[in-house]
Amino acid sequence: MDKKQENNFAFIDAANLHKGIKSLHWQLDYQRFRIWLTEKYSVSTAYLFIGLIPKYKDLYTILQEAGFTLVYKEVVYDGEGKPKGNCDADLVLKVTQDTYENAFSKAVIVTSDGDYAGLIKFLLEKSKLEIVLSPAKVKKCSILIKRTGARISYLNDQKSILETRKEKTPDKDETL
Questions:
Q1: Given the DSSP bridges, would you call strands 43-52 and 8-13 parallel, antiparallel or unpaired?
Q2: How far is Cα 116 from Cα 130, in angstroms, rounded to an integer?
Q3: Least confident segment among 2-6, 25-29, 100-104, 115-119
Q4: Fewest Cβ atoms closer than 10 Å to its Cβ: which of 111, 129, 138, 172?
Q5: How many Å apart are CA 74 and CA 90, to the nearest integer?
Q6: Who's near 45: CB < 8 A, 6+ residues apart?
Q7: Do the domain assignments include residue 167?
Q8: CB of 63 within 8 A of CB of 33?
Q9: Dihedral angle at the C-alpha atoms of 165, 169, 174, 176, nearest 10 degrees?
C-alpha cells in the first residue's frame, strides 16, 4: 500500500512521552512532532492519552491546535498530592476497539512502557503495527517491548528535527 494512501493512527502515552523526553534533557516541539508523524508514518489521527488537570487547559488547547486528538483520563491524587492519571488501560482499549473496527491501516505506538508489550504482540499478530516510538534512551526502553520483536525507533535519534527551537536573542549590537 502506498504510504500516502495509508490511514495510520498514533496512540501516544502522554505521560510516558513527556517523562522520557525530559529524561533526555530536551523539550519536544509537539507541533513538529505531529507533522513528523504525518510525514514519516502517514498518521492521519494521533491520539494523545493524558490525565485531565484543569490548570493545564492552555496546554490541552495547544496540543489540540497542533493536531492531536486528546483522550482524557480523570486523575486521582496520591498521599503526597501528586496527580496519577494512568492511561494504559484506556489506550489498550482504544487500540483494540479500533483494530476490530478496522479503523486504521497500521498503528504507531509511542511509549517505552513494558505494560504495552501484550498490546504490541496483539498488533503484530494482526499485522497492524507500523512501529513503536520510544521516548526513552535505548537502555531505558522496556525489555518486554524489545522482546516482542517489533520495530522500535528512538525519538532521541530525531532530536534535531523534533526539539523545541530556542529563540535567538540579539547580541549587544542588536544583530542575531
A1: parallel
A2: 15
A3: 2-6
A4: 172
A5: 11
A6: 9, 10, 69, 104
A7: no
A8: no
A9: -30
